[in-house]
Specification:
With 324 residues, the protein is α+β, with helices and mostly antiparallel strands. Helix content is 37%, strand content 17%. Bound molecules: flavin mononucleotide. InterPro entries: Nitroreductase-like (IPR000415), Nitroreductase/BluB (IPR050627).
Length: 324
């Protein structure tokens, strides 16, 4: 294809891209059309300095948005060839997408695309029903299709060992007043285009909880409404921890989340053990894996999640630079 993407195509795809998850719903992404290609960048102004000093979360979030963008373009019949980190001198540009030969979307693409608007983080307790083997296999395939791995933490002792790592990471983070202040800044009790609405924040945590919850100031807990005793915990990892690995992990994350949604599963994310480097290393060792854990998910069956707001397409578009 000699011609590039149009602004109409860009806008339609960005409307889907922004439905992606992001750390504290900061939506740290920007999109622009340049020489017929769509470029996805992180928005450094939306990085969380205390929670995410390295910018890992902005790149995982940006990768998740990139996955939605790819799906949206493919389902519109205008799939893209993607180059990650196209300008070595500008690491904030995560990807550049140019049109490849038009083709019909595959049934998998259509199924995942249909799940974009039904995917929400679900921080509530799940039902005790186990996730069937077929669905577990599909989740692993989703990660592998995006050059990442997904390790399921199986068995009571493995889940308890993971929980110990996660709780200790949580305690380390909670000791930092700047981290707590940042989280409080992104909890929303009034309508807002970003941040985590308190009603989506999940229930208040209680001492008997196995896994730590981020504490977005959620709802009171109904008596007896405990978390599932044996949650299905999945660790998503990449080959390494470069900028490109983190963008790949973001794409794989979104593919796993959409695959889960398509299979009727609910997911919540917990990244405390990723954000504390000692915990991340302990997690890697406990899995006996090479590469770098990039995200942890709790997966199960639950009530429908709560939608969170997004900024408008206009707010995340950069106006094209006129060709010189
Ligand atoms: C990199 C990253 C890290 C996240 N970490 C957590 C976490 O530790 N705890 C949590 O409850 N949610 C976590 N989330 C989920 C976000 O808070 C959520 O995606 C955002 O609020 C938007 O809501 P939605 O997923 O329902 O669209 C994380 C998301 C991303 C992309």
């Amino acid at each position: 294809m000699g011609t590039g993407y149009t602004e109409t195509q860009l806008r339609a795809a960005v409307a889907d891209a922004v439905r992606a998850p992001s750390l504290h719903n900061t939506q740290p992404w920007r999109f622009r059309l340049r020489d017929g290609g769509i470029e996805v960048s992180v928005d450094p102004a939306r990085r969380l300095p205390a929670t995410d000093p390295s910018g890992w979360g902005t790149r995982v979030s940006g990768g998740a948005a990139l996955f939605n963008l790819r799906l949206s373009l493919a389902v519109a019949g205008t799939p893209a060839t993607v180059r990650l980190r196209p300008y070595p001198a500008d690491p904030d540009v995560l990807a550049r997408l140019v049109p490849e030969l038009p083709r019909r979307p595959t049934p998998t693409e259509q199924g995942l695309y249909a799940a974009i608007g039904r995917r929400f983080s679900n921080r509530a307790p799940f039902w005790p029903d186990p996730v069937p083997a077929e669905a577990r296999w599909r989740l692993g395939e989703a990660a592998r299709a995006e050059q990442c791995w997904l390790e399921l933490v199986i068995g009571v002792s493995a889940v308890n060992a993971f929980a110990e790592i996660a709780r200790s990471a949580h305690r380390v983070l909670e000791r930092d007043p700047a981290y707590r202040a940042e989280r409080a800044d992104w909890v929303r009790t009034e309508p807002a285009p970003d941040g985590v609405p308190a009603r989506a924040g999940g229930p208040q945590s209680e001492p008997q909880d196995l896994l730590p919850s981020r504490g977005f100031g959620g709802l009171d807990r109904a008596p007896g409404r405990d978390f599932e005793p044996e949650p299905l915990v999945a660790v998503l990892g990449a080959a390494g921890n470069t900028v490109v690995d983190q963008v790949l992990a973001g794409q794989a994350l979104q593919r796993v989340l959409l695959t889960a949604t398509d299979a009727g599963l609910a997911v919540s994310m917990l990244s405390q053990p990723i954000e504390v480097s000692g915990a991340r290393e302990a997690l890697r060792l406990s899995l006996g894996r090479f590469g770098t854990p990039q995200m942890v998910m709790r997966i199960g069956y639950g009530q429908p999640g709560v939608a969170t707001p997004r900024r408008s397409v206009d707010e995340v578009l950069d106006v094209a630079v006129a060709p010189g």
